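Friendly challenge for the regulars: who can give me the structure tokens for this chain first? No prize, just bragging rights.
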Amino acid sequence: MENQRSLFIGNAIRTARKQQKITQEDLAKLVGVGKSYISKCEKGYIKNIRHDILLNLNSILNLDLSEEYLIDLSNLTGKRFSMLTVVSFDHCERKQRYWKCKCDCGNYTIVSTGKLNNGEVKSCGCLRAIENKSRAKHNMSRSRIYNIYHSMIKRCYSINCASYPRYGGRGITVCDNWLDKTSGFENFYAWACASGYAEHLSLDRINVNDGYSPQNCRWATAKEQANNRTNTPHITYNGLTKTPAEWAAIYHIDRQVILNRYKKGLRGKELFSYTAKK
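First reply, four minutes later:
Bragging rights claimed.
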């Protein structure tokens, strides 16, 4: 998206400049930048053109860019990064902007643009405190149950986690009781023991669109989890609605065969019939 934006703006600058017969050197003097900067802008190499420069270019060349392209991308106010929400600009230091951020726990912290964008800082420090205190207190940091707990928090709050787009990225959170600084893991562990945790079971959300909480979580087998995924189709036949895996068990046909037929557009008994080999 950023590349398309920079290429569109660059093309608009180049076209307008040539139509008005202004050289890159002359335009650079009018804007107050170097010729190479104008050249890079026109080629789309600069993803986020400084806002004041973009406004000058828009005015000088009569680019007539819409608000969509004139928005100040360098302003992070209101944006959310893991557990942090940017409240306001704080200061500049060594060419880096620093922002005042409010953490989900209620505390405030100052973080640079770079560390927000690359995910190096995810909270005011409370997230790390939760992990460290839990390890020190219960001495279970190498256990399977702790790894489940840690992975749950990571996919909901760490933008560098591969699973983040499917969890935290779409608003899935962890309840306050399990995210508590001092007893989060202990609360989760107590719930796990009382709700049927076993080594062969995995943590599963009953409603895949809601967050992690005692009310919305259970321990499930791999088959049960597969049936509960957001991308698992539910097939209705003869008044019954089941997943491909459930239909496969009834008709003794491979689940993938049913799924492939469903994706090809087959419906009804065609999904479950046996085909003669040629």
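The CA atoms of residues 102 and 263 lie 45 Å apart. The first strand starts at residue 80 and ends at 81. Your move, everyone else.
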